[in-house]
Design goal:
Chain lengths: 479, 479
């Protein structure tokens, strides 16, 4: 029993210290390990398998919309990074610089890509000559580097994995449509696959991406009431095209600049999965993304017939789900705790009596609900339960999210909510950056987005300055 | 006609200039583009789709042997790289150094990984405590950087994509078995999927990997008679474990060092596909790896019924193969040339008469063989032809390879073959590095490997010094 206790004791309770709970979960669920390289982590098999599933599912959705994958260099010459003014200002302070190749100093230093707009522009400049070459709808899966001071696994690390899509279009309209389309791909993916409800909206001028005309975002609410920006899609208009000279000869024989977009989603989303669904026993994985969906735990596995029955059960269930058996010599209690920490959606327990009576016990990770199931029915029951669990996890997260959206009509209300009611705060805004800055400075609350849906006028005046409001904003503390 | 001619004219003939032919093919088949970053390339959609297929197939084969994927940082602190003496000597002269993070100089400079043995050792040092933690059979898909002076697309570039597997085992025997097992995974993959016959063998002391006890390799013969090392698998014994202090408590309660292996295959293999199968019209892709296996080209596509028939054909064939239609407004001749340059295995031509008579023309990329096929039979015929083509491409490559293996019994013969008969040279070797060095210096020929199979004594004395020979070596000029 000492061992079982130890596993669970390693996780601080959420109530006690949410940040510590998070760190305990990523470590004890076997998702990551720390390294000798400050701010960089090892993504271990359990973590990487999650990312592989995310990649597979997103990549399929991308390709359905006509995306093609490519790979561009990880290095950007300093002169190239500097071509678009806003962009370089946004990124230069946080890039890593390569100054030596082999034993020689470089003539021009190279930064390790923090994002690849400049490289794609340099590439498109040659690739795009005629309207026939458009659109370009390219994406790459890679790692990027941003020299952050404070780092946390998945949420903010100096190197992280992501995909970055970069497109070029003949018209502004087409670029805008692609920007929205990809945001919706992200949002649908989060809701359908990760069971994470998101707010879709637009970033303010202050919060938009360096060099973008407009930035769209999906914002999710974590269990502690803080927001996590979970994916972004940017419309660059023809700003980059003008800086890089990306022109094409259109059907009307006119030379025109292309219109561009970019959109990215990173391993940060694994942080969202943890903080939306996890509990005090560890990770809880939505069935659709779980690398292992069912863990079979034999009880008294040395007793005659138990392991055989467990293996037969695995074979039958494998038709419907990703299933494994824990055959190790650990105690059942230890195995239960381990499967729980790792967030495996369902557990099937089978002991000597069960095997004899042709049944097993089905346990759900999220609700702990336990019920007996006939072995013959197990595959169908597992399939049904996984579907049900996926739906219920989304509904539960949505309920939690919706219960943590509060309306503020003035600075006093905003302060009260920010201090006492963790969650999203809906508040009207006049459109001035100074109000955003004041709110951020005084309350550590930032504008998350102006929502696409549910734009309504909850009051006439700006929550900060009291002047005439222009739009509804979701505000919040954020990761 | 001008356009068709232009496409083909862009490719220099192999006979005339093989190196230029290669460059023309990679560029005109749309595999890569050059960039502003010297020695780094863009892998374009046609090139990246090849890599995705290689990844999917290899990854599946890895996982069948128990491999789990992980991701480690791209940076290695200088002190970590220096822990294993031979290893740092091998790599330090060709790494890129990061010296600044953001606006600050780093306390310790970091190299961009040229390979990740040192990082995996640092990781395993914490992960492995007991025999229960073994084996670790991890792999990562990533890019690595080596600051080469001369670069060529796919064959030698400053950044390239690869996978690197790193394992830790309780015994020397298990490590040796894993080293051989992974070499065989590579060899089988090359032969079965890429239709590239390979020689499996062991590298000499001089040619082995920096820090390895033994290095195994697969060597393929390119169309110009030069060898290409296509995948390697290393057994480190406990050398790295001792340097890094990776110890575990064994079942017998003794503290022991682990035994390690690593193995890698890179985008270099795309160079092999090009140089083994390509011809003067461009790329020729083995069906199993071709992103598009069949291109349907409608002839007179504006004529009534043609496009409809082509689309119906596509739908039917898509059950059996990866198929596309070229619906662009280019001429049929241009479309043929383009599909040929890109190496698409089969072409289906369908014109107004064909549509009327319920048939189409099937053309094979490698042999140019043309035959009429009833539309109703097309899916089955395509399936059969793809299988046949895959087999015949392997047989043709094997025949070419076997016809270019020559035996040399002394230095004179070796020189004659090296100068006049491009290919592998079989020659006995005494085991002394000085002989290898002499051969390399005088003839630009290196020892490729001591073959695992077909080890026979073709003469008693070393091909170089005439002293007693120890083993048969495959020698050759190499990329």
């Amino acid at each position: 029993m000492a061992k079982e206790k130890k596993l669970v004791e390693q996780i601080t309770s959420m109530q006690e210290d949410f940040a510590q709970w998070y760190t305990d979960v990523v470590k004890n669920a076997g998702l990551i390990d720390y390294t000798s390289v400050k701010g960089c982590m090892v993504i271990k098999p359990a973590g990487y398998a999650l990312w592989e599933n995310i990649q597979r599912e997103l990549d399929r959705r991308f390709k359905e919309t006509g995306v093609e994958n490519v790979y561009l260099p990880m290095f950007i010459p300093e002169s190239l990074l500097q071509k678009e003014k806003d962009h370089v200002e946004g990124f230069a302070p946080e890039v890593a610089w390569v100054t030596h190749g082999g034993l020689q100093p470089l003539q021009e230093r190279l930064c390790v890509r923090p994002t690849s707009e400049t490289l794609f522009c340099d590439f498109y400049k040659n690739e795009v000559q005629s309207y026939r070459d458009l659109p370009k709808v390219y994406n790459q899966w890679c790692s990027v580097v941003r020299w952050e001071k404070e780092t946390r696994p998945f949420l903010r690390s100096r190197e992280f994995l992501w995909q970055e899509g970069h497109t070029a279009h003949a018209t502004a309209k087409e670029a805008e449509e692609r920007t929205v389309q990809m945001l919706n791909v992200y949002a649908d993916f989060c809701e359908e696959v990760l069971a994470i409800p998101v707010i879709r909206g637009q970033k303010t001028e202050k919060e938009k991406f360096a060099g973008a005309e407009s930035t769209y975002t999906i914002e999710a609410l974590m269990h502690d009431g803080k927001a996590l920006q979970s994916g972004t899609s940017h419309n660059f208009g023809d700003g980059f095209a003008r800086a890089f000279g990306i022109q094409f000869l259109d059907k009307d024989n006119q030379l025109k600049y292309v219109h561009q977009t970019s959109w990215g989603l990173s391993t940060r989303i694994i942080g969202a999965i943890i903080m939306v669904h996890g509990d005090d026993s560890g990770l809880v994985l939505p069935p659709r993304i779980a690398p292992t969906q069912v863990m079979i735990v034999p009880i008294r596995q040395d007793a005659p017939g138990v392991l055989e029955a467990a293996e037969k059960l695995m074979e039958a269930v494998s038709e419907k789900a990703r299933v494994k058996i824990d055959r190790t010599d650990k105690s059942p209690g230890f195995k239960f705790a381990e499967a729980e920490i790792r967030g495996i959606p369902l557990r099937l327990e089978i002991g000597p009596k069960d095997a004899e009576q042709g049944k097993c016990v089905l346990v759900r990770r999220d609700t702990r609900e336990k019920r007996e199931v006939a072995l013959a029915d197990a595959p169908a029951e597992v399939e049904k339960e996984l579907l049900r669990m996926q739906e219920e996890m989304f509904e539960r997260a949505k309920k939690h999210r919706d219960e943590h959206i509060f309306d503020a009509h003035n600075m006093e209300e905003l302060r009260d909510i920010a201090e006492n009611h963790p969650g999203f705060i809906r508040g009207m805004w006049c459109g001035k950056t100074s109000c955003e800055e004041k709110i951020k400075e005084e309350l550590s609350v930032t504008s998350r987005c102006a929502p696409f849906h549910d734009q309504e006028e909850i009051s006439e005046s700006c929550v900060c300055c009291g002047e005439k409001a222009k739009k509804l904003i979701y505000w919040g503390k954020a990761y």
